[in-house]
């Protein structure tokens, strides 16, 4: 199949899912065309089936806002015609589903009919998409997609609650390549560099936005380190980072907290991690938690959104109400206080992650593509 994938190329769950999906589809022989404004961060152009086409938006003094959707839909039209692309898969509704629909319309005028699959990822529905400024366009473009998927049952329910959606939404969860060779043999797990013997290592990875409740991460860690020797690894960049650094200073724990910035080597950090913290306000799925679990790291998270669909209470970790810092610290300590308990949770976390192996999830996307190609195309 010749598939165009439209996504955000930056660090962030939806772009990562789109990129990993494209790479895996290419390995299976599909021809994949990534169409976005810069090369996706996890994209290695090492497979002849992978192509990348950049969307350029020239600056013009008249424009207060650059018309990205227009440039994207034009690029889609050109690339579909040039490469005989058969299907569009857009990740994150805003503005990709809207731009995809416009491309379909333009192509129809030239006698080309192409189906569009839209994958909803989370904030395109919850925090951003449901804002009155966007809602009519998001509703319209979801209803005009030939097939819609969401990354969790929770996000599907939320979509029906927030929008007037008249079509079926298929749940296809986030995935992970469980058998990936995560550890470089020449640079095995470098735990000793980061912490001394007897210290537990706790990690948080995100885009440091408000929804991640970064101050909670620091406060939970503060409570943990008062009871046991521990270090905190903070991985990622975003608007809440500076505030977190200040909070660490205020609590007098700066020497125990390492801020890494964005990293493409998260496996190297997760390989020496004992526990992962994700106390988010909401999380449609929580890919970062799954990535941790695939490295055998148990998760302490909030119980909001789709998190209970990936972090299983008392098995791969524990879940608490949003903002329950005491509860999360207590649960963390119950795992970290005993080597046996930690070992058990590590094994369990890996076991749960295996359910989300790419080998189980890829056929679900392929089935959706087949269905889209065989349906009457919506316009
Ligand atoms: O919140 C993020 O980390 C970024 C965001 C995105 O769209 O890139 O992530 C969303 O999509 C991920 C992949 O499907 C999900 O695993 C995340 O839970 C979701 N984030 C939120 O719902 C806040």
Automatic annotation (TrEMBL):
Annotated ranges, domain Glycosyltransferase subfamily 4-like N-terminal: 11-179
Domain of life according to the entry: Bacteria
GO annotation terms (biological process): bacillithiol biosynthetic process
Location of the Glycosyl transferase family domain: 196-349
GO molecular function, one term: glycosyltransferase activity
The protein's name: N-acetyl-alpha-D-glucosaminyl L-malate synthase BshA
UniProt organism field: Flavobacterium macacae
Organism taxonomic ancestry: Bacteria, Pseudomonadati, Bacteroidota, Flavobacteriia, Flavobacteriales
Gene of this entry: bshA
């Amino acid at each position: 199949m010749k598939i165009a994938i439209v996504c955000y190329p930056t660090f962030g769950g939806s772009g990562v899912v789109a990129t990993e999906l494209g790479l895996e589809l290419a390995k299976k022989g599909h021809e994949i065309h990534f169409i976005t404004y810069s090369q996706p961060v996890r994209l290695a152009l090492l497979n002849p089936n992978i192509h990348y086409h950049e969307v350029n938006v020239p600056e013009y003094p008249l424009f207060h806002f650059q018309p990205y959707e227009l440039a994207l839909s034009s690029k889609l039209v050109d690339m579909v015609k040039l490469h005989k692309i058969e299907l569009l898969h857009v990740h994150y509704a805003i503005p990709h589903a809207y731009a995809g629909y416009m491309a379909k319309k333009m192509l129809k005028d030239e006698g080309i009919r192409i189906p569009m699959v839209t994958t909803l990822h989370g904030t395109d529905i919850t925090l951003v998409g449901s804002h009155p400024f966007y809602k009519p366009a998001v509703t319209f473009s979801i209803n005009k997609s030939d097939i819609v998927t969401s990354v969790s049952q929770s996000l599907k329910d939320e979509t029906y609650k927030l929008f007037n959606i008249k079509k079926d939404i298929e749940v296809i969860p986030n995935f992970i390549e469980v058998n990936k060779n995560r550890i470089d043999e020449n640079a095995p797990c470098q735990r000793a560099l980061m912490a001394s013997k007897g210290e537990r290592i706790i990690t948080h990875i995100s885009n440091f936005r408000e929804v991640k409740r970064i101050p909670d991460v620091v406060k939970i860690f503060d409570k943990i380190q008062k009871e046991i020797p521990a270090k905190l690894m903070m991985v990622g960049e975003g608007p809440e980072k500076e505030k977190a650094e200040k909070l660490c200073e205020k609590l007098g724990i700066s020497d125990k907290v390492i801020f890494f910035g964005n990293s493409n080597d998260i496996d190297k950090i997760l390989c020496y991690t004992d526990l992962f913290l994700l106390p988010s306000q909401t999380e449609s799925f929580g890919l970062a938690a799954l990535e941790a679990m695939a490295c055998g790291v148990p998760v302490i998270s909030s119980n909001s959104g789709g998190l209970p669909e990936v972090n299983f209470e008392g098995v791969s970790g524990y879940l608490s109400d949003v903002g329950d810092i005491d509860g999360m610290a207590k649960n963390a300590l119950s795992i970290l206080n005993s080597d046996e308990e930690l070992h058990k949770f590590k094994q369990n976390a890996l076991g749960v992650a295996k359910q989300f192996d790419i080998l189980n999830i890829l056929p679900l996307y392929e089935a959706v593509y087949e269905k889209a190609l065989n349906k009457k195309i919506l316009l």
